[in-house]
Design goal:
α5 crosses α7, α6 packs antiparallel against α7 and α8 packs antiparallel against α10. Helices cover 79% and strands 0% of the residues. By secondary structure, it is an all-alpha fold. It is built from ten helices and no strands. The radius of gyration is 20 Å and the shape is globular.
């Protein structure tokens, strides 16, 4: 408990950064993943090919490599600045936003496949009925397929979000001050590996367990009755 008391403020700040990474990356991945799912379902071969290539390449690329590429490739080589260069917190803000970008790009591939599997649960007759009524592909997707798909895959999406929460630890590779980076520093400073590990394990359980319970409840409440 002495270690927790000594580092309490830093621990709370680190987990707050983890929460922010999860929220921003989760929103971005949900949007991008839905777009990718639409591309894979679209009656346009080029869009199908692009969506399939994205998912296959990104899902089979280590997340660490994607995060590092965002930092070295986007941030340093291409000189794409995501923050004001004159800001006193330029480096910290840039690393955080590049981490969000990498996590979004990676997680979107899993969201895409989850949403696409949800669309496949919708009876084919509903999509055909919508087309017979003159609905375009976009209208069919927006009004018929996606609303039912999201309700059918609430539990899998919850699992993706929980995995994203744990994957935020990779952001420490580019110096983002989240939980994993602080855990490394505390272990080096105190040499109390078991105590520090227990503190951070408990922190992640506190973050992920309520998410699992929430999505389980939502999955039962919003399930599509067939």
């Amino acid at each position: 408990m002495e270690i927790f008391t000594e580092y309490r403020d830093q621990i709370f700040a680190a987990f707050w950064t983890t929460i922010q990474l999860t929220i921003y990356s989760g929103i971005g991945a949900l949007i991008l993943g839905t777009v990718l799912a639409a591309m894979r379902l679209a009656p346009v071969p080029v869009l199908n090919w692009l969506g399939t290539m994205y998912v296959n390449v990104i899902r089979n690329t280590p997340l660490t490599l994607i995060i590092v590429f965002c930092s070295l490739g986007v941030g340093q080589t291409l000189r794409i600045t995501l923050t004001d260069p004159d800001s006193p917190t330029f480096i910290v803000d840039t690393n955080f936003r590049l981490a969000v970008l990498g996590l979004t790009v990676y997680t979107a591939s899993f969201v895409c496949e989850t949403v696409r599997s949800g669309v496949n649960t919708v009876p084919l007759g509903q999509a055909e009925a919508a087309r017979s009524l003159g609905f375009s592909f976009g209208q069919n997707l927006r009004l018929i397929l996606l609303p039912q798909a999201f309700r059918a895959v609430i539990l899998p999406l919850g699992s993706v979000l929980i995995a994203l929460t744990k994957n935020t630890t990779i952001a420490s590779a580019i110096g983002v001050a989240e939980a994993a980076l602080l855990m490394k520093e505390m272990t080096e400073n105190t040499a109390a590996l078991l105590t520090v590990g227990t503190i951070f394990a408990a922190g992640f359980v506190i973050l992920t367990l309520p998410l699992g319970l929430l999505f389980s409840w939502l999955g039962k409440r919003l399930a599509v009755q067939r």
